[in-house]
C-alpha cells in the first residue's frame, strides 16, 4: 500500500540511530521498551546505557539486588517498572535459562509486559507480524484516516490495531512498526506539527479537513490529587541523619525517604514543630528546627501533585541507626529527595 511504502521510505531516511535498533537481541529491546513507557527517548537513553553497562545480560540484572536496580532507575519515575523489570529478569534467568519467550502470546505472560511491549519485542526480535499501538500510532492513524474514535475507550486499541495490521507489510513488520512510531515521534507530533513538509500532506484526511489539532480524540480527564509532605531532615551531634524505606504500596514503593509527616493541607512552622515534639525523636531532645524551603516544592506525578517541604531538625546526642552523608547517598531515593540531598546537604 502507498501509505506503508511512503512511511517506510521516510523512516529509512530520517530514523534516529538508537542502540536498541541495531540488534534483534530481546534483552536490550525489552529493556528499552520498559524504560520508554511514559518516558521520552532523550530522557531514557542515559538510563538505558547505565543499565546495559551495569547489567550486560539478563543474568547480571537477575543477580542484582533490588536497591541496586532502584538506584540506577532513580529519576526515571514510575518505579513499579523497575521492580517488575527486576522480577522478570529473575524469572527469565532462573526459570527460562535466560531465553526470552519467542512469540507475542508468551511474551504477554511476563510481569510488566503489556500488549504494546509484547508486540514491540515480538516484531523487533522475531519479526512476528503483530502491530504496536502506542500514543504515536493513535495519533498518526487518527489524523491520516480522520478517525474520531475516543482513544480513552477500551475498544479503541483493538480498532487501531486492526487497521495497523491491515496496513503492515507482513514480510517486514519490524520496520513498519518502528516507522510509524518514529513518524509520530518526529513528524506527526502532538502540537503544531509541520504539515508543510509532511510526506502525507496531499493524502492526510485531517489536514484536508483542517482537523489536525483535534485528533486524536481523548475524552477522559485525570483527576489530580494534592498531597502535602513534610520531610524531617534530622542531624545529631555527629551530623548523622535517619531515613526510612517506603514499604506501603503506592508511589515510590521500596525507595527511601526522610521521616515524613503527611498533612491534609500546607501547614506552618508551629503545626510541624508541635508534631515533631509530640511524636518524633522521643529519645533525642530537639534543639532547633527551621524550614529549608519556605515555599513548597511542587512535584507533579501523573495522578498526584506533591507539595513538599523539608525541615531541618537538630537533636541532642546520637540518633539510633543514624547514617552519615556518604552512606546516605548510596540509597535509592525519589528524584525530588535526591535533588535536595545533592543541592542542599
Notable features of this structure?
345 residues, Nucleoside Triphosphate Pyrophosphohydrolase, five-stranded mixed β-sheet, alpha+beta, two-stranded antiparallel sheet, 12% strand, 15 helices, Endonuclease III, domain 1, single chain
* Number of E-state strands: 7
At the fourth level of CATH, the homologous superfamily of the largest domain is Hypothetical protein, domain 2
Number of domains: 2
Structural classification: alpha+beta
Sheet with the most strands, sense and barrel status: 5 strands, mixed
Poorly predicted residue ranges: none
CATH topology of the largest domain: Endonuclease III, domain 1
Q: Can you identify the CATH class of the largest domain?
A: Mainly Alpha
Shape: elongated
Helices, by number, come to: 15
Radius of gyration: 24 Å
Residues in helix, %: 40-55%
How much strand? 5-15%
Mean pLDDT: 95
Pfam families: HHH, HhH-GPD, NUDIX_4
GO molecular function: 4 iron, 4 sulfur cluster binding; 8-oxo-7,8-dihydroguanine DNA N-glycosylase activity; adenine/guanine mispair binding; metal ion binding; oxidized purine DNA binding; purine-specific mismatch base pair DNA N-glycosylase activity
Domain HhH-GPD: 35-186
Cofactor: [4Fe-4S] cluster
Describe the structure.
Residues 35-186 form the HhH-GPD domain. It is a single chain. With 345 residues, the protein is α+β, with helices and mostly antiparallel strands. The protein has two domains: 2-214, Hypothetical protein, domain 2 (Endonuclease III, domain 1), CATH 1.10.340; 225-344, Nucleoside Triphosphate Pyrophosphohydrolase (Alpha-Beta Complex), CATH 3.90.79.10. It has helices spanning 2-14, 26-35, 41-54, 58-63, 66-73, 80-95, 104-107, 115-126, 135-144, 154-167, 173-186, 205-208, 269-279, 325-328, 335-344; strands spanning 225-235, 244-245, 256-257, 260-263, 286-291, 297-300, 304-315. Strands 1, 4, 5, 6 and 7 form a five-stranded mixed beta sheet that branches. Strands 2-3 form a two-stranded antiparallel ribbon.
Amino acid at each position: 500500500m502507498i501509505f506503508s511504502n511512503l512511511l517506510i521510505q521516510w523512516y529509512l531516511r530520517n530514523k534516529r540511530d538508537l542502540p536498541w535498533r541495531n540488534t534483534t537481541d530481546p534483552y536490550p529491546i525489552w529493556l528499552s521498551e520498559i524504560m520508554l513507557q511514559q518516558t521520552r527517548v532523550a530522557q531514557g537513553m542515559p538510563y538505558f546505557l547505565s543499565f546495559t553497562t551495569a547489567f550486560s545480560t539478563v543474568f547480571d540484572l537477575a543477580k542484582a539486588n533490588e536497591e541496586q536496580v532502584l538506584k540506577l532507575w532513580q529519576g526515571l519515575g514510575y518505579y513499579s517498572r523497575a521492580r517488575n523489570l527486576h522480577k522478570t529478569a529473575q524469572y527469565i534467568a532462573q526459570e527460562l535459562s535466560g531465553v526470552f519467550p519467542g512469540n507475542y502470546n508468551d511474551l504477554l505472560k511476563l510481569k510488566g509486559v503489556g500488549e504494546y511491549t509484547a508486540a514491540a519485542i515480538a516484531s523487533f526480535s522475531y519479526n512476528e507480524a503483530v502491530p504496536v499501538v502506542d500514543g504515536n500510532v493513535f495519533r498518526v492513524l487518527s489524523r491520516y484516516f480522520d478517525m474520531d474514535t475516543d482513544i480513552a475507550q477500551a475498544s479503541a486499541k483493538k480498532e487501531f490495531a486492526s487497521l495497523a495490521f491491515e496496513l503492515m507489510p507482513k514480510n517486514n513488520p519490524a520496520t513498519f512498526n518502528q516507522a510509524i512510531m518514529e513518524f509520530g515521534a518526529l513528524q506527526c507530533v502532538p502540537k503544531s506539527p509541520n504539515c508543510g513538509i509532511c510526506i502525507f500532506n496531499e493524502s492526510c484526511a485531517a489536514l484536508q479537513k483542517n482537523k489536525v489539532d483535534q485528533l486524536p480524540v481523548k475524552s477522559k480527564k485525570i483527576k489530580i490529587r494534592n498531597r502535602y509532605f513534610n520531610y524531617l531532615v534530622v542531624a545529631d551531634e555527629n551530623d548523622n541523619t535517619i531515613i526510612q524505606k517506603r514499604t506501603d504500596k503506592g508511589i515510590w514503593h521500596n525507595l527511601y525517604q526522610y521521616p515524613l509527616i503527611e498533612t491534609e493541607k500546607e501547614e506552618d512552622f508551629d503545626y510541624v514543630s508541635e508534631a515533631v515534639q509530640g511524636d518524633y525523636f522521643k529519645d533525642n531532645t530537639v534543639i532547633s528546627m527551621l524550614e529549608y524551603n519556605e515555599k513548597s516544592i511542587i512535584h507533579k506525578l501523573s495522578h498526584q501533585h506533591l507539595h513538599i517541604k523539608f525541615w531541618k531538625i537538630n537533636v541532642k546526642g546520637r540518633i539510633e541507626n543514624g547514617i552519615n552523608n556518604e552512606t546516605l547517598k548510596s540509597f535509592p531515593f525519589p528524584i525530588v529527595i535526591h535533588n535536595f540531598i545533592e543541592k542542599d546537604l
